[in-house]
Amino acid sequence: MENQFGCQQIDTKIKEALEKNDQNLAVAKIQEYLDKDQNVPLNIAVTGETGSGKSTFVNAIRGIDNKDEKAARTGCVETTMEVTPYLHPNYPNVTFWDLPGIGTNNYPAAEYLKKVGFEKFDFFIIISADRFRENDVKLAKEIQKMEKKFYFIRSKIDDNIRNEKRSQREFNEERTLIQIRNNCIQGLQDLGLQSPQVFLVSSFDLTLYDFPLLVETLKEELPELKKEAFLLAMPNISLDMIKEKKKTFKAKVKYFATLSAAVGAVPVPGVSVAVDTTLLFGVVTKYVLGFGLDIPSLKRMANYSGVPYEELKKVIKSTLIAVKVTPELLLRLLVQFGSLAALLAAEEGSRFIPIIGIPVSMGLSFTFTYSSLNTILDMLADDAEKVFTRVHLNTTG
Question: What is the DSSP code string of 66-83?
Answer without folding.
Answer: TTSTTSPP--SS----S-
